[in-house]
Each structure stands twice: as C-alpha cells, then as structure tokens.
Amino acid sequence: MKISARLAVLAVVSSLAYLGLAVWGLGGFAAFFSHGALVVTALATLAMTVASLFTEVNLSSGEREDRDNRWVIPAFGIIGVVSGYLPAYTDRIDFWTFGGEGVRWLGAVLFIIGGALRLWPVFVLGKRFSGLVAIQPGHQLVTEGIYHRLRNPSYLGVLVLAVGWALVFRSGVGLVLAALTLIPLIARIHSEEALLRGQFGAQYEAYCARSWRLIPGVY
Questions:
Q1: Residue 179 is part of a domain; what is its CATH number?
Q2: Where do transmembrane segments lie in this chain (predicted)?
Q3: Phi–psi pair at 7, nearest 5 degrees
C-alpha cells in the first residue's frame, strides 16, 4: 500500500459514507439494491476505493503551493455530501426524474468510465499527484500518453463520474449538482495552470497550444 494510512482511512470512510447517504436517500438497502445498475455502481465505487489505496496520492504542499486555491477542497466536500444524498432522495420521491432502467445503466457505465479516467492519471503521476495545487520536488511535465491531448484527464473523470452518478438515480437535480462541480473544478484548473506555467514556461505554453484543457474539442 503506497498511500498514507491516514489518507487510506479517509478514502474508505468517505466512500462508505457516500454510499450510505445514497442508500439512506433512496429509502434503505432493499430499495437501493433492487436496481442492478445501482448494485454495479456500488461495486464500482468499492473497486475504485481499493484501487486508490495503491496510488501515491498525497496532500503535500511540495516546493511551492497556491494556498489561495484551498477553498476548492471544502467546496468539493459540500457538493459531494449533497450529491451523495439528494439525487437518491429525488429518485425516491420521483421529483424531477426522467427515464427508466436504461438511464440508470447509462449512468453506471459513465460512472465506471469516469472512475477509470479519474484514477489512471493518478497512477501515471505518482507522488506528483497532490490534493493541493503544488509543485513537488523533482516535478516533471507529463505530456504523453493520456496527457497527450488533454491537460486535465483526471478532472474530466470527476465530471463524468458526477454525471454518471446523477443518471443512475435518473436525477435532474443530480445533473445540476454535477454542473456545479465545474465552479471549483475550473478554478482549480486555472490555479494549477498558472503554477505550471510559472514552473515550466515556454515548454508548458507549447503544450497548451496543442492540447485541450478539459473537454476535447470544446474547452
């Protein structure tokens, strides 16, 4: 296990709490696990949590950190707690819901794709992947592989995850919450890019010129 014990415990507790909120919102275990797509989503969540225990993600401020961007951490936390419960609850009371089991399965597929996209770059970056916006010791710019045309694949994964989570509950409210994640997400991206531009200069500018920030062909 490469992740620190404290972060490992946090990852496990957070995942279980997130699933617990969804089970509570939908009305209990029987209601939640009566849908195959939700069973798959729960198993995928646990699998992602186990996979995260073998990453080197950390909370190191490294050699230089943009401390002004720390506000995005509680912002993500608040949106996450609300997203854990509210889409499931609106599903239970049939408020602003749409579609049927097909939508749930589409959501499950997107959730898995988003999870893979979220974790893949974490393994690629290793110790350079910090929960803080920071330049780590020996930091090198990665511009190949999954980063070849997309500068923030892990953040795209977060967005796809959020949309998938909303769809497994057929929740319009969930989609609104997914859209709200763009606010701290884009703020963090701009902060990271400013730090990387200051660290790598022309090399980073050239990389930006041939790659997309978040969504290929759009942004």
A1: 1.20.120.1630
A2: 7-32, 38-59, 71-90, 102-120, 155-187
A3: -70, -35
